[in-house]
User: What shape does this take?
Amino acid sequence: MTPPETRYAKSGDVRIAYQVVGEGPLDLVFVPGFVSNLDAFWETQYAEFFSRLAAFSRLILFDKRGTGLSDRDVGIATLEERMDDVRAVMDAARSERAALLGVSEGGPMSLLFAATYPQRVQALVLYGSYAHSLHLSTTGEYDQEIERIDRLWGTGGYLLGRYAPDTGSEETARRMAARLERACASPSAVIAIRRMNQEIDARHVLPAIRVPTLVMHRVGDGMVSVEGGRYLAANIPDAKYIELPGNNHNFVLAGEHGMLNRVVGEVEEFLTGSRTGEVEIDRILATVMFTDIVDSTKRAAALGDRMWRALLDRHDEIVRQQLARFRGREVKHTGDGFLATFDGPARAVRCASAIVDTMRPLGLAVRGGLHTGEIELKGGDIGGIAVNIAARVAAMAGPGETLVSSTVRDLVAGSGLRFADRGLHTLRGLPEEVHLYTILGG
Assistant: This one.
């Protein structure tokens, strides 16, 4: 999605980058945690998160001073300076009164702002946040964190390892996180922010909060202990508290669509009284692709564990390169194969063909199967009859072959792709025969 226009608000002598998206009946200021970059966020899963929030609000986004698109070489801001920056952004966006959504370290400033300027705060939502940071409670833990930043910042390993550890080792996610790290702040700025965060203590502010407040926290959050969220809810007058399952501090980076739906739904209901944008199970039309290595067990036994592992790693790397090239979305890695989806059947066919072709020089025979139909989005996974059909089609393919259903063949008419008729087949679990075609090229 194309990022909205970036503008600048002047806070003293510092320019703060901000964006406004959506035309909802209420203003919602998103107060980022840690670091951010407005333009880079729109190239990641944050685009979906922000779009969902903007569906029921006039969403105001900004980068804190010292990070992202805002002035960089201005030192690390105090909570008071950050409050001034939020006021400047709200004034520039012509927002007299707004709800605040404070995430992680954006929470303490949001608390202070709500207590200091209640006339400008309609409501307060805190996610994965705290009043007093205790997650690096000893000098040794703090030193280890600085060493981790020095070693990993810019590689994607820091954000994924600390904020979204359950994402796994998926290469596309790592590259995205690496770019995001570099775009958001330098390593020195990150270390300075970490140092400042250790000194934050807004516990004395909590009894003074007089605006409606929602606190959400994940029970297994490894970055900010759930005790931080429980303390907020227990000490903010009349706060509503929702404890969520899961371990990732940042569900957006982790690609947790189910948790994204849940959080956006809770925010919308708290602020508006309803959840017009939330659905329990989303259904979309997609082309589903299964691939796997033929006779992988025999190859592994012949090569030995070490050589097979190296070959399998190369296979995984090539498949992910082709998925990125043809705009596929990796759903699941199955050990010796992949499950992926595409928003266009022609791209899916070309991707499958490219995977099969690029594996031949490695001595790997890969087969694939594709079908287009309605699928159910279940968090990061998918389901539905279309997935089952694609799996059955793939199982019918021979070594180095990709089969498609007649639905796929019909949808790519005029694309230049060529197929050979493989006839009607009975697929296990399906009541009707399916017409299959093998890909020839195009």
The mean pLDDT is 89. The first helix runs from residue 38 to 41.
